[in-house]
Each structure stands twice: as structure tokens, then as C-alpha cells.
Design goal:
Helix content is about 70%, strand content about 0%. It has 5 helices and no strands. It is elongated. The model has no long low-confidence stretch (mean pLDDT about 80).
Length: about 140
């Protein structure tokens, strides 16, 4: 097994997380929490699976069973990021508003994380960056 199949996707995710921190800092958001935070532009998850699928295809071949597995994994991760996780983030936003305004619930419930999923644009940029990094390395 080539070390590239393991290291390049992780490197792609770290690069994308660094980009996310820089973009958040430029937009006056708190970048210190962003390394372990979900959501935002670009998608680190999409960069990871995009880089993985591309690197597997380049090494094992785009008609190999390992590429098929990597591609299916990428589809699942992207679908989860733009679907379920995005909807959970919207639910978190609404629940935070309800908890904040109700004195009975506020002490019992912590603020929920509301940036969980990604927009299609965030996922697309993450995929493109991840695949580009795989091609370049």
C-alpha cells in the first residue's frame, strides 16, 4: 500500500482547514475553534474524500474495485454533509433561539452547535481542492 493514499487526503483536509481559518479570520469570525468545527467554506470532509478517491484512482486505476469503494464513500460523505448534517444545523439554530428566549429552559440546555453541514458550493470547493492536491502531489 502506498503511503500517498493515506497521507495525501489528510494533507488535503489540513490545507482546507487552514483555508477555512483564514477565511473566517478575514470575515471577523473566531478562527480558533475552526480546526475541530464542522461546516463552513470549504468542506474539509469533501476535500478528504475527494483527495482519497482521486489518489486511489491514480494509483490503483479508475476501473479498480478500490476506486469504486473510495468513490462510493465520497458520495456518502458528501450526501451526509449537504443533507442530514445541514438540516441538523438548521434545527440547532431554531432550538438555540427558543432556548435563549425561554427562561425556564435556558439554565438546563447548553447552546447547540448550529454550523454542522455544508452548502453545495462549500462541498464543491472542498472536492475540487482535494482532487487538485491529489493530482499535484
Amino acid at each position: 500500500m502506498s503511503y500517498e493514499i493515506f497521507l495525501v487526503p489528510i494533507l488535503a483536509m489540513l490545507i482546507v482547514q487552514a483555508i477555512k481559518i483564514i477565511l473566517d479570520a478575514l470575515n471577523d469570525k473566531s478562527p480558533a475553534k475552526d480546526l475541530a468545527r464542522y461546516g463552513g467554506m470549504p468542506s474539509g470532509h469533501a476535500a478528504l474524500v475527494g483527495a482519497l478517491a482521486m489518489k486511489v484512482g491514480m494509483i490503483d486505476g479508475f476501473y479498480s474495485s478500490t476506486f469504486a469503494i473510495a468513490l462510493i464513500l465520497a458520495f456518502l460523505i458528501v450526501r451526509d454533509a449537504t443533507g442530514l448534517r445541514r438540516h441538523l444545523g438548521k434545527h440547532g439554530e431554531v432550538l438555540n433561539i427558543l432556548i435563549k428566549d425561554d427562561k425556564k429552559f435556558k439554565p438546563r440546555f447548553p447552546k447547540l452547535q448550529d454550523r454542522l453541514g455544508h452548502t453545495p458550493a462549500q462541498v464543491t470547493v472542498g472536492l475540487l481542492i482535494g482532487m487538485a492536491i491529489s493530482i499535484l502531489i
